[in-house]
User: Which sequence fits this backbone?
């Protein structure tokens, strides 16, 4: 049970924090079609976070609500990977992050469709459909930017270099086949985008601890402050 | 031939039927229609900003999802409307240029800041409420693509309005601080909402032609009165006071009387020096300019693909 | 008494929020000498805010501490002028803002040196010395940038244009001689900087309400969220 | 002649007196000294970032003032130290270039993130504490300007260390959440603090020459032991557990034994891939580059003034 709860919280936190970064893109996208698509992805992930938190609160015995998880935990209780909390860069960085994130998440959720807990399995099944679309969206943009103009190619390359140091963390303590699947998909997309797989160094953990242990980057504190500001300033309020 | 198509146009409009993109239409009608649709589209897009300001800070995940979905709908409305304008020969990129160079307007209401989460609710209740009053008649606009877009938009706006009102209801049942927040937001948005119907009829030069063309179906003052009559009982149900001491039921008119509107306020905001005009246009400009290389890459890539 | 408390809160809020914007410059200044100077100005203003809040809490009968004022009020209870809360721009914008702010504040504090409340009078007397230095720092930079390179001149002009729409608010409901003094000082500095007095339009209030009425810009909510985040997340903690 | 100045240098150092900028000194000494002072200066400047991260969020105005003043002191230390390096013929701008191009190092401890407000206290207690252990002997450095800068810096650092420890004491008397925050921050900073003394003596090739020149007066391991001996009772007084199960008093040695240090961690962080290396250098680079036009304007203006 504690492991199940932890799984739900970790996957919920990934979704909530990635959704937060997508929310910050709102009104800043390059085209209206992308406004709609990014909001859509943000909404899907927000929905996944809500289901996962609710499940976590039910199985961990605390009875915490989705809002308790989102608004009343401290930074060190958030278990998301550092990739999702990085400050937003340009559109290419967003595409790179979303491509990496959704390729990884799709592989994770696909395996959870047959998970022992039926609620998590159902959440995963719904998530697989959604994240398949997210990955396709990111992959299409990666190819357009990589195989677009010289400038967009350079931006796409730089975007990948920005997020790549945090990729290893996604596969830390995971079954090796997950990484194999990820590398295979990324390889195909990058090849279509006429781009090489990045060779930048991994970003270190903090004495062996990473996002999944509640140890984050300095960007996370500001994200949490923003996320929780209204909720924290109004204790006891119902919205 | 020209006589025939003109007659067809006049007859179609007179019969309350719809002009379609394939039909001939007078240049003045086309221009007026493009301007009307474009300004409506711009309003949807700029209108994303004041509400978008609260998405990351929404204090419950349910409200966050509702708000994000609403702002997404506004982007969608902008898309339909720009498409409708394109059926009249306009170009979306050119219309965006007109917006960010301040040569075309958008609804002035979006030049007020959103300062608390209650503003999200009040915008749903009052601003969407006023927009619906303005827009329901447009579902019968003589221009077909616009009328059809408006049907869909009005349906979604009504949904947003109910959600906004429901948020306020919840907050009014909450802490004293939440109640005060709702009252304060109402105070800030009431008068600007009344101004959303435009200048008083005596001061509205284009109304007659627009009504003849069935682009517009009610005068500004008529719609404003309708909105006031609708809002007063809603405010009572909510438990907030509308910030107008002269607001009172007039038995003879069968309508609520209300105090004089400060038209100099509206003029100043329309002129461009309102509290947020500079930020709103600047944000839209920055997004457009920051996105230029992305759009260019997409078109270069598409050209490469079609050559392959 | 309520007027005295209100005066202390308003001047305290101006100081705290301007200090906050200076704190955000920390580690970003163009030279180490400016790091030291900007931190120094931020510290002086923070000190003024602390004295003023303490006085406000003593005279308004609530007994609130300086921290109650800073960390437990909502945005609409902050009475600072909008000028100080604007998001940070480049160094020229900072210089423009600091020049305007400290010229105005110096004129205000100079008059308060003979104020009826002896505590406020003493705070003002100390503040006059500090703000005189702040104004000189800003004026020197304004002259260097205005009469420096073509690029710096253009940045300085743009910086002044950014803050100028909010200048009228500083003199709203004030004695006219305050504005006369301000215009005279600014005129001399801008003339030495070979720059014209900006001609951009005033930024409107919100239906007659401005910062002093607790009606702010959208930037203020984010500033407050940042300022109060740790304090709000730890109710009951003593630091 | 050369023999004489060399003899003077050797004799001055041997007599524990100070070399001054006017004195002749060997090139290798000059180079080593410039590098040492520059790296120390860089550490002060980069060290502003992890603590500066909490200034705007400090939860009391008193702590905010203390922290802002501390970070300001660090900028001041950077200034003295770059000035001391300039007495040896170095140029501040060139040294900054060496920093932002990653050709010169700074203390690796600043490549760890600060994650809660307790980190501010723990940096004061452990990081400043370790820095003081390292720096007190440098007040007797053979190079006069550096020695004098260190006297002033050590005085201020001791003050900072007391303030950091006092913050932790206050937090340990606070809520359980505050206590947990202090423990967690201690867990993250303990081992990196031990690594601040550099590699073990057997692995520290420059120590012998530096000790002969009286640039360095104690070995890395000696200083590290001194720090451990000092910190254990402080941790006990505070009520926090140091994250080392092997930490134990050794009666025979008259010192605390401690567990093995993970030198691969230090190597990785020094190599540049630590948790924050990229952000720290990038921030410093951006400030430097963003400030280029300001510095240029100042020098152009000064030239104009001197012509008048």
Assistant:
């Amino acid at each position: 049970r504690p492991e199940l709860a932890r799984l739900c919280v970790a996957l919920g936190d990934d979704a909530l924090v990635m959704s937060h970064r997508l929310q910050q893109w709102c009104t800043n996208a390059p085209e209206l079609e992308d406004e709609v698509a990014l909001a859509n992805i943000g909404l899907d992930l927000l929905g996944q976070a809500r289901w996962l938190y609710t499940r976590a609160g039910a199985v961990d015995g605390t009875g915490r609500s989705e809002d308790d998880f989102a608004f009343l935990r401290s930074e060190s209780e958030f278990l998301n990977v550092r990739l999702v909390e990085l400050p937003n860069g340009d559109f290419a960085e967003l595409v790179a992050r979303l491509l990496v994130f959704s390729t990884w998440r799709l592989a994770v959720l696909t395996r959870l469709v047959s998970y022992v807990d039926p609620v998590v399995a159902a959440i995963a099944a719904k998530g697989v459909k959604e994240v398949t679309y997210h990955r396709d969206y990111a992959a299409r943009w990666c190819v357009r930017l990589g195989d677009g103009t010289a400038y967009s190619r350079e931006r796409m390359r730089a975007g990948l270099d920005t997020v790549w140091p945090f990729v290893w963390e996604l596969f830390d303590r995971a079954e090796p086949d997950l990484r194999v699947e990820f590398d295979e998909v990324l390889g195909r997309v990058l090849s279509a985008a006429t781009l090489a797989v990045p060779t930048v160094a991994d970003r270190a953990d903090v004495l062996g601890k990473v996002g999944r242990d509640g140890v984050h980057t300095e960007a996370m504190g500001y994200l949490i402050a923003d996320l929780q500001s209204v909720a924290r300033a109004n204790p006891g309020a119902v919205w | 031939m020209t006589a025939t198509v003109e007659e067809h146009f006049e007859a179609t409009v007179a019969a309350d039927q719809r002009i379609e993109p394939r039909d001939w239409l007078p240049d003045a009608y086309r221009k007026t229609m493009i301007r009307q649709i474009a300004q409506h589209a711009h309003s949807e897009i700029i209108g994303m900003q004041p509400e978008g300001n609260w998405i990351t800070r929404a204090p419950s995940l349910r409200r966050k999802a509702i708000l994000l979905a609403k702002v997404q709908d506004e982007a969608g409305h902008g898309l339909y409307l720009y498409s409708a304008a394109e059926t009249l020969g306009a170009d979306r990129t050119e219309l965006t240029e007109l917006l960010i160079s301040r040569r075309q307007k958008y609804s002035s209401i979006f030049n007020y800041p959103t300062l608390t989460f209650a503003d999200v609710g009040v915008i749903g209740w009052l601003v969407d409420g006023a927009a619906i009053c303005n827009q329901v008649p447009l579902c019968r606009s003589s221009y077909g693509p616009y009328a059809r877009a408006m049907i869909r938009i009005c349906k979604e706006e009504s949904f947003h309005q109910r959600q906004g009102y429901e948020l306020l209801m919840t907050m009014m049942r909450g802490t004293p601080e939440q109640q005060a927040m709702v009252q304060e937001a109402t105070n800030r948005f009431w008068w600007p909402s009344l101004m959303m119907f435009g200048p008083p009829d005596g001061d509205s030069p284009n109304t007659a032609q627009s009504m003849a063309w069935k682009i517009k179906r009610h005068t500004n003052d008529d719609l404003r009165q309708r909105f006031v009559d609708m809002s007063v009982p809603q405010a009572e149900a909510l438990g907030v006071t509308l910030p107008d001491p002269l607001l009172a039921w007039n038995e003879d008119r069968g309508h609520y009387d209300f105090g004089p509107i400060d038209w100099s306020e509206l003029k100043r905001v329309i002129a461009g020096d309102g509290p947020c005009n500079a930020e709103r246009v600047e944000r839209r400009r920055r997004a457009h300019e920051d996105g230029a290389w992305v759009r260019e890459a997409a078109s270069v890539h598409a050209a490469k693909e079609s050559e392959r």
Observations:
- Chain C has a mean pLDDT of 97.
- Residues 165 and 202 of chain C are 4 Å apart (CA to CA).
- Chain C touches chain A through eleven residues (CB under 8 Å).
- The first helix of chain C runs from residue 2 to 23.
